[in-house]
Design a protein that fits this description.
Elements: E1 2-6, H1 12-24, E2 29-33, H2 35-44, H3 49-55, E3 58-60, E4 78-84, H4 86-93, H5 100-110, E5 114-119, H6 126-137, E6 141-142, H7 156-170
Parallel strand pairs: 1-2, 1-4, 2-3, 4-5, 5-6
Helix pairs in contact: 1-7, 4-5, 4-6
Length: 182
């Protein structure tokens, strides 16, 4: 079971596409969407928030710190926060669990579960880099949304699939979402 968190950084389409692929692969998932991400989803994509929620197997409210997903006893194999805002990244790096996404990340790291953080910001300040280093040292995989250009005739969908494919690779889930380097 994979928990997916979508925060308010630009690039919510990455999280949406990941949910679609997990659904197609019959991989159980749970979803949390930040309040700001709900605005970003409807601003940057043609999706409605409810459509994204309906793609997930289970949805948890962003502000419900009492939900089962916030406990170390909740059975999850991995967490992916995609995209991950610098606010969320900073909160996680500094142990500040003020909402469901940051609490789930805290639990995932303390339980030594696979934790993939997909930051979406540019340029990066030194503190952003330090926070990423802190999380990496705790075992998180830092997977910036930096698409590859391995072939010609690349579309936006190809770039989205490249990042989602790299996320799946980091989770050891076989996929053919992008053309690999030969």
């Amino acid at each position: 079971m994979i928990v997916v968190g979508i925060t308010g950084a630009s690039g919510s389409i990455y999280g949406i596409r990941l949910l679609e692929v997990l659904k197609d692969m019959n991989i159980e998932n749970s979803l949390v969407i930040s309040d700001t991400a709900k605005i970003v989803i409807e601003t940057e994509t043609d999706y409605k928030v409810q459509e994204v929620i309906d793609t997930a197997d289970t949805y948890y409210d962003f502000n419900d710190l009492t939900s089962s997903i916030n406990s170390g006893s909740f059975k999850a194999d991995a967490l992916v926060i995609v995209p991950c805002s610098m606010k969320t990244l900073s909160s996680i790096a500094n142990g500040y669990s003020a909402n469901t996404i940051t609490r789930v990340a805290d639990v995932s790291l303390k339980e030594k579960r696979k934790t993939v953080i997909v930051p979406r910001e540019t340029p990066l300040r030194s503190i952003h880099l330090q926070n990423m280093l802190t999380l990496s040292q705790e075992g998180a995989i830092i997977l910036p949304a930096m698409p590859g250009f391995y072939s010609t005739h690349i579309t936006l969908d190809d770039q989205i699939n490249f990042i989602v494919g790299k996320i799946l690779d980091s989770l050891k889930i076989d996929n053919d979402l992008f053309k690999r380097w030969k």
